[in-house]
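Protein modeling request. Please complete all fields; requests missing the sequence field cannot be processed.
Requester role: graduate student
Desired output: 3D structure, token encoding
Chains: 1
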Amino acid sequence: MSNLQTAKEFIKLYQERILFGVIIVLIAVISFRAGMIKEREQQSMELKVFLNNEQKLNVEDKKAIALGKAVQRKGLTETVESSIVSRENEKECQFVGSKNSDKYHTMSCQWASRIKPENIVCFESVEEAERRGYIPASCNK
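Delivered output (141 residues):
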């Protein structure tokens, strides 16, 4: 008898046990992965904010989102508040960029909300952003 025939007979004889073992291993792998994902979510300190598209945002709401107030993290609330106070006299932010990047974003861009409050640079227009050396981010195209 060849090895192939021996293997086929072994599989036929123990197919239920083999299937049960495979199922147990798959359940273990899926459970482990689910636990890793859950742990990562618990470690994340971000609060997801869902905005109602029907509701129009006023200037204060846009500033709050741009400065990270919509997503408050432990220990950063005071920093965000002071940033808002210090920017009240500044012109309205139509576009934002980071001090550590060369890209500018619209207020609705997902990446704009990820800029740390202390690194935000406000622009009144596209021309101003480009004049200061910034280029459009992928969300602006």
